[in-house]
Amino acid sequence: MNRGFDTYQLAEEHEALRAAVRSLSEKEIAPHAAEVDEQSRFPIEAKKALVKAGFHAAHIPEDYAGEGADSIATCIVIEEVARVCASSSLIPAVNKLGTMPILLGASDELKRTVLPSVANGEAMVSYALSEREAGSDTASMRTRARLDGDHWVLNGTKCWITNAGESSWYTVMAVTDPDAARKADGISAFLVHADDPGFEVGAKERKLGIKGSPTCEIHFSDCAIPENRIIGEPGTGLRTALRALDHTRPTIGAQAVGIAQGALDAAVAYVRERRQFGRPVSDFQGVQFMLADMAMSIEAARHMVYVAAARAERGEDDLVFVSAAAKCFASDVAMRVTTDAVQLFGGAGYTTDFPVERMMRDAKITQIYEGTNQIQRMVMAKSLLRG
Ligand SMILES: Cc1cc2nc3c(=O)[nH]c(=O)nc-3n(C[C@H](O)[C@H](O)[C@H](O)COP(=O)(O)OP(=O)(O)OC[C@H]3O[C@@H](n4cnc5c(N)ncnc54)[C@H](O)[C@@H]3O)c2cc1C
């Protein structure tokens, strides 16, 4: 046997990281997950624990005072936190989403302004692309930014912004050239700080799941920011924002895998204990086949997510297909697995006495955000047909 054969095997450091995040999540995050959901409150205990351990934004490179975790390591952190609390997993996930356009396109000066404060846990970053009338059709956004002397002045409203109000920085895409021949070429990306004049966070959405992660509108009313807060060149913002998604869709896949694993683990424990017809329900083949299907699809999803993350880490050119596929497949798996987990708990699964109903509600968002799964399928088909 060739024990040194390491294809399809994570590095020892990855497995050690998984053990560390799992232990922290079970001890310090899981005990608060139900209450966070019930009270729709930000998981402050999780934030403190993640910051203390350096898991809140582990992807920030060492050059910017971060941990320098690779893309698979970042997925493992998100997966293991999501296994116990999907809302809490949005702390590392959205820190990656918000900073990815900066890492891909910002000047070194701007990176140094923002990234160290995210790395040390003082600040979080949100990503603001969507608008009420520009969801899937991102290029139709209406938020405007115009240069006035040495300041950009922003006006408009972004919606559905995850962790709004908790974040200090916002990566905001806005139209700078409304006359551009292609709408996408008239959009630029900016960094806005919560203290900038004219910036305001709106009311919290009342949601089906991920209730511990605030989702709000953010408003810009003549919001003036220094000229050097633009990310890259004018007109490159939408491309940078979409390129960022190629790197972060695997992290949503990881979140989905984690939620699904949490539901499977809970279901396995329950069916072993629950007795009907004089024996544990786990004795019934109908139940066993469900468990096998759940575990099989989670395993497949996990592999797709890690492969997509590894390809992103290697800086491969065309991540579009693989990252859309990983997010789409894993989130569909999460929805199916969590629904089956509720089924395996019977009536108990339908109550808040057990975590699986929360996991089912939390899983749904992974099919919607960072592009709905219809949009992922469009992206994959486009990539196939391009040849
Ligand atoms: C909880 C939550 C958190 C979010 N966080 C963020 C965030 O942090 N930052 C951010 O910028 N955005 C965020 N979003 C926004 C999210 O990315 C959008 O909701 C999503 O992209 C879909 O846009 P929409 O809601 O406008 O749906 P629509 O675009 O209106 O879509 C409605 C339906 O039509 C389908 N559809 C649309 N176009 C097509 C097409 N061409 N072909 C086939 N079907 C199509 C969609 O799949 C969907 O089923 C968040 C959303 C939610 C709910």
TrEMBL record:
Pfam families the UniProt entry points to? Acyl-CoA_dh_1, Acyl-CoA_dh_M, Acyl-CoA_dh_N
Quick one: signal sequence residues?
none
Keywords (alphabetical) are: FAD, Flavoprotein, Oxidoreductase
Domain Acyl-CoA dehydrogenase/oxidase N-terminal: residue ranges: 12-122
Key word Oxidoreductase present in the record?
A: yes
Q: Taking every annotated instance into account, which residue ranges of this chain make up the domain Acyl-CoA oxidase/dehydrogenase middle? A: 127-223
User: Which ranges carry the Acyl-CoA dehydrogenase/oxidase C-terminal domain?
Assistant: 235-385
Q: What family does this belong to? A: Belongs to the acyl-CoA dehydrogenase family.
The name under which this protein is listed is Acyl-CoA dehydrogenase
